[in-house]
Design a protein that fits this description.
2% strand
Length: 240
Amino acid sequence: MATRRSVLALLLGAPLAACETFDPEILDAVMAMGGSSLTQGEAAEGIRAALSNGVLSALGIVGRSGGFLNNDLIRISLPQRLREVQKIMASIGASAMLDDLQAKLNHGAEKAAPKAKTIFMDAVADLSITDAIAIVRGPETAATLYLQEKTTPELSRLFTPVMKTALAGTGAFQALDAVTNRLQSVPFAPNLTQNAKNDLVSHGVKYGLKGVFTYIGKEEAAIRENPAKRTSEILRRVFG
């Protein structure tokens, strides 16, 4: 009787070009186990369920107070130009304004991420059966990596106004104005461009999404490795 691990091993050994799909009859034979078979549709449902769990878990982690700022793994630094100034000012004990801006940036990401739940869940729902079948045979974060690569441009576009509102709400823009004014009186300090606020938003979007995907990946890996994380029948069928 084939075990789930042997099924995955067979899938891993099956060649698949990027533009190819599995022959349905071969797939059904490979995925047949102990008298019951895992259909392509069930495989897709299982991958979507794993990603949905990952999204909800990730948003719960990053969306709490200090979810970004107090987390060494996903804390968002300032954009490079501001980070360079922050480093110089820190060396003379004068980086308080920039440290405050960084804190507000991270708090903005904490507020923005949970509000983007629908955006993430819609991206998961759009996962195709063909894509899901390829993901089943992939490494421990294959689904997360696929979702990240395929949806980041669109997620970034949709997430940008959410992040902009969140940063305004935390006072990040006011803090950036204060930093800009302060730098004008500092010899040899770089001049911030008129696009500094847009740069701050795009920076927050990029690393806010990266933080969310980091924890989606952790949840996916846990579901693949830990039976206790397979909290639904479809997860047990696909990953059990």
